[in-house]
């Protein structure tokens, strides 16, 4: 490579780096409140519709603006896999499931080493299609079989003769990912290059609990490299991070904060979406109401609308 081409490449990298530190919000745009439609968690976009959960059901907001129940018993994080099937954390039933195209339900994971999960909360997938999910326990500790509030990976499926699909026999169905230093994992994100695992460590119902966004380096097998934990952002005594997403420039969108102080949380960090650089620099903030901003997702016709769930309300804001 010539000096000139090296200089050009360096300039392109510098431009990309600068772009990732700029606010992605369309100038003058304000977040739009779509009202109290039960948008508590999720959300996930597919074929012109937004899917989200209200604590009991998965709801679907269609292109025509009407909300309907898509299915019952799923109450938290959602994502669509490569085949367009909806994968959900069913906190109440303590499992992770997939809704097949014919409407049937496949249980992907409900136990680790014979013990039931605590309450699967949020999930993401890596470039290989493997699903990572968090398993905290908020509220009552009664009935907990797993004493660790952990992070798990549902391993890649193997293709069998005849087109059938089953989990590979030479690896466990579910692997626990050792995220040392995390107290109560909530939101989770894998960077597009599979290099980093971002974890919302949100121990928000105790004084002095962690309310941090953590980053871990992953090895080629998708496991955390020991000693790589790094604090990216700290909400201190406020309401900590919940669900999050990453855009193509590497910016992280984190649902966090509260507008009303509680016994364990201050309202120093208001409810909304905190837009951070990949290294944790605060770039912008999208305020939401009434309270407890929980999750977010990209969607819209061109994928440039950010949808945010907050206190049962759905919010949206256009991005550049």
| Percent helix | under 10%
Overall 3D shape:
globular
**Span between termini:** 33 Å
At the first level of CATH, the class of the domain at 35-248 is: Mainly Beta
Q: What would you note in describing this structure?
A:
- The chain contains one helix and 28 strands.
- It has one helix at 3-20, and strands spanning 32-39, 41-46, 49-53, 57-61, 67-72, 78-80, 86-90, 95-99, 105-109, 111-112, 115-116, 123-125, 131-135, 150-154, 157-159, 165-167, 174-177, 185-190, 196-202, 211-217, 230-234, 244-246, 252-256, 272-276, 282-287, 293-299, 305-310, 312-318.
- It has a domain at 35-248: TolB, C-terminal domain (Neuraminidase, 6 Propeller), CATH 2.120.10.30.
- The strands form eight sheets. A four-stranded antiparallel beta sheet has the order 1-28-27-26, with no helix packed on it. Strands 2-3-4-5 form a four-stranded antiparallel beta sheet, with no helix packed on it.
- The two termini are 33 Å apart.
- The protein has 320 residues and is mostly beta strands.
- It is globular and about 50 Å long.
């Amino acid at each position: 490579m010539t000096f000139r081409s090296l200089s050009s490449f360096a300039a392109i990298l510098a431009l990309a780096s600068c772009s990732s530190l700029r606010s992605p919000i369309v100038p003058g745009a304000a977040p739009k409140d779509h009202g109290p439609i039960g948008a508590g968690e999720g959300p996930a976009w597919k074929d012109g519709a937004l899917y989200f959960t209200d604590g009991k059901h998965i709801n679907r907001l269609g292109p025509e603006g009407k909300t309907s129940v898509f299915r019952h018993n799923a109450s938290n994080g959602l994502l669509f896999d490569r085949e367009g099937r909806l994968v959900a954390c069913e906190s109440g039933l303590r499992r992770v499931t997939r809704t097949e195209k014919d409407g049937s339900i496949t249980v992907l994971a409900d136990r680790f080493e014979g013990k039931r999960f605590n309450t699967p909360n949020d999930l993401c997938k890596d470039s290989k299609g493997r699903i990572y999910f968090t398993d905290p326990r908020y509220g009552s500790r009664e009935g907990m079989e797993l004493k660790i509030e952990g992070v798990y990976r549902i391993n890649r499926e193997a293709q069998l003769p005849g087109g059938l699909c089953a989990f590979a026999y030479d690896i466990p169905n579910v692997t626990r990912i050792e995220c040392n230093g995390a107290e109560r994992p909530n939101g989770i994100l894998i960077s597009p290059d599979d290099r980093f695992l971002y974890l919302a460590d949100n121990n928000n119902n105790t004084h002095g609990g962690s309310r941090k966004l953590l980053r871990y380096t992953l090895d080629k097998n998708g496991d955390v490299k020991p000693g790589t934990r790094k604090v990216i952002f700290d909400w201190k005594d406020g309401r900590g991070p919940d669900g999050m997403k990453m855009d193509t420039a590497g910016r992280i969108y984190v649902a966090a904060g509260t507008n009303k102080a509680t016994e364990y949380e201050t309202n120093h960090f208001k409810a909304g979406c905190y837009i951070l650089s990949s290294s944790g620099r605060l770039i912008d903030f999208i305020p939401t109401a009434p309270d407890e901003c929980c999750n977010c997702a990209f969607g819209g016709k061109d994928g440039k609308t950010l949808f945010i769930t907050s206190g049962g309300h759905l919010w949206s804001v256009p991005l550049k």
